[in-house]
Amino acid sequence: MIPEQEFEINDIEQSAYAEDTALPKDLAEALQLEKQRREETLFLRKKILSFFISWTFHSTGIAIAKWCLVLGGSSALWTAASLCFTISFVPTAFLATGININYTDGQFQVTNMQKLSNLGIGLVSASVTTYLAVKDYQYLQDLSNQTIVQLSESIREVQRQHPETDPWLAIAVAGALFVGSMFAIFGGRGK
Q: 21 with 52: CB under 8 angstroms?
């Protein structure tokens, strides 16, 4: 009985299958066109997804940098710059490029290095994002300082011309600034 089972197994392995029937030419062309359209659609979706992922990380980096700079001032400049750069560089370095770095068997293994140009582009774009975030803060700080100097000079001028209004003028200016800031913050929300 054992020899028959071996014979049946060997017979099955050696049997040949008939080839598939060829599809009609128009159906094969339609399938090929559909396959190409699907590949183009997937490629476009990948590009759009990559754009939005990068945009999200860059905007998050700028927001965190501005938050650090507003709360910490110039003392938090390096913290803000490094956080902005790191967050902006993440999608480019690892998510969008697909470069994989592994350490196995005592060796580094790197795959997808053909996308190294994307890494360079990401480095540049993260640097530009960081530069813009810091420059935006410096511009805001300069405007704030100029406004403070201009208000101080205006108050001193009025105080020299009308010394009797000294305490009331400071109260009026502070009140006007408070009302103006509240209007700027909450003014557009009622619509």
A: no
Residue with tokens 């980096």: 61
Question: 73 and 99 in contact (C-beta within 8 Å)?
Answer: no
Most confident among 32-36, 64-68, 159-163 (mean pLDDT): 32-36
- Contact 84/129 with Cβ under 8 angstroms? yes
- Length, in residues, of the chain: 191
Residue 120, helix vs strand vs coil = helix
3-class state of residue 102 by DSSP = strand
> pLDDT tens, 132-183?
888 888 888 888 889 888 888 887 887 788 777 667 777 887 888 888 887 7
Give the end-to-end CA distance of the chain in Å, rounded to a whole number.
91
| CA separation, residue 190 to residues 39, 46, 180, 184 (Å) | 48, 40, 16, 12
List CB contacts of 74: < 8 A, sequence separation 6 or more. 141
